Amino acid sequence: MLASRTFWVGRNFTLQHKFTPIQSYYASRASEYDAVYEKPERQIDLRSIEQWLPSILQGKRILEIACGTGYWTQFIAPEASSIYAIDSAEETLQIARQRIPASNVSFAIDDAYAPRTDERTFNAAFAGFWFSHVLIERQIEFLTGLNKALQPGAKVLLLDNVFVEGSSSAICERDKFGNTYQSRTLADGSRHKILKNFPSADQLHALVANGLGCLPRYTSWHFFWAFEYVVPEH
Ligand SMILES: C[S@@+](CC[C@H](N)C(=O)[O-])C[C@H]1O[C@@H](n2cnc3c(N)ncnc32)[C@H](O)[C@@H]1O
């Protein structure tokens, strides 16, 4: 069952929104989310990516999808021209706003599948640890919508987890489309079945090969992967 939430969108109207299980889970997890960045075995990779990522997005006007608590936003902001960072949870955005008061960064509640970007122009997009939560059967829809929000020639950068036995939560279920799920427990003891996919480099390349993206590039560390492509002419 989807939880329902009402939140302010502007001065005069509200948005009634059905939260998906993933949205509810991350809203509840906001205050404990950053612990994932403290796993000792991931520290070397994290330091490496914290240096690498801002260099790739240097000088860009960036649409950040599902920014969460702003962990990656904080490293990108000093190098970016601007960042418009969206997430579906007010709980995570509150932490992100406090963490990054920079004037070139703005935050908004919005849906990753249909960002309301108005007149803004972006020449880059970044999504950290979001793509793994997109159903395989919605991946093309998500990337098509993302491309539409960007200028032709924009760079798209997805960063996500490699499945590593002993460090990643075990896969508890696989559906008929190949989506995989993990059982996760929050500090309050609540248990959640969470969609978490681990696409291979070949699968990512195949996804953009039909005209969704040019110049694809896959980079991997022990615990993480990054996939970049360039948005073609619309
Ligand atoms: C794994 S967290 C990633 C957070 C952050 N990007 C990071 O790397 O630390 C996934 C985020 O997606 C957000 N989210 C879930 N569904 C969403 C949707 N439909 N639109 C926008 N954000 C969504 C959650 O609130 C959560 O903050």
TrEMBL record:
A matching Pfam family: Methyltransf_25
GO MF, one annotated term: 2-polyprenyl-6-hydroxyphenol methylase activity
PANTHER family cross-referenced by the UniProt entry:
TRANS-ACONITATE 2-METHYLTRANSFERASE-RELATED
Q: Which UniProt keywords apply?
A: Methyltransferase, Transferase
- Give the source species: Methylophilus flavus
* EC assignment: 2.1.1.222, 2.1.1.64
InterPro entries annotated for this entry?
Answer: Methyltransf_25, SAM-dependent_MTases_sf
Designated name of the protein:
Class I SAM-dependent methyltransferase
Q: Which GO terms describe its biological process?
A: methylation
Which stretches make up the Methyltransferase domain? 62-153
Q: Does the keyword Methyltransferase apply?
A: yes
On whether Manganese is a keyword of this UniProt record, the answer is no
Which EC main class describes this enzyme?
transferase
